[in-house]
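Z., the sequence and structure:
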Amino acid sequence: MKKIAFYVNATKPSAPEVRDHLVMYAQKCGMEVVDAADSVPDVVVVLGGDGTMLSAVHRHPGVPLLGLNLGSLGYLAYVEESGFDDAIAALAEGRYRISHRTALKVCGVNALNDVVVSRGVSGHAIRLDLSVDGEHATRFVADGLVIATPTGSTAYSLAAGGPVLMPASQSLVVTPVCPHALSSRPLVLRDTVKMSISADVRGDGEGPGVFADGRQVCVLAAGETLEIEKSDSTVPLVELDDVNPYEVLTRKLGWSGSSIR
């Protein structure tokens, strides 16, 4: 990669100093540092946490992203500060691969992590009917529903009790949030399915909100059907050659047991 741009979370106190250092280091490695507003870079290096990564996904669609973690958890931004210089060198030397991550399409926008249907401020559980490829699957009575990609399976879906999906699993997971039945469990589906969700909105209350990667994109009103399917576009993320995805899970999620070697 020859042209590199930086996308920085300016709220992080150390971000300006780290960026300045990495700009000089990238130039030392023979890379051209560009402004993504004026030139299309070969890669955008994201300085921040997972929220900053999601913001960069929507700001720079189609451009490979590498996340350097200045946040707390940082699963998408998996490179820790001790490895920043080597990550830049790896980009210059070609020691990486591009992982084309599945995205979801809903209400005319794409979501890398997840689509969430949430009860909002009503304070009441919502009834959501799920159909898969035109066949009614089940009704969830819950505070909400998370439809996550493998990339997003370690985010809200995991916190709600969903499984971890590896990036190459070609699957999606539907996870109810605080379901009002002990039998309600996450549902893993192949990523080629088309899902439809309708809400039982009672009285004159507003329907549940629909969120893509944390941003509200529409409201599901009574009588409407929400369509969710795999997007035709993927999200290119940079994976360094020496990174073991299972080690990242162990380190980031605090799994017990000995370190993977």
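Helices lie at 15-28, 50-59, 84-93, 156-159, 245-253. The radius of gyration is 20 Å.

Let me know what you think.
H.
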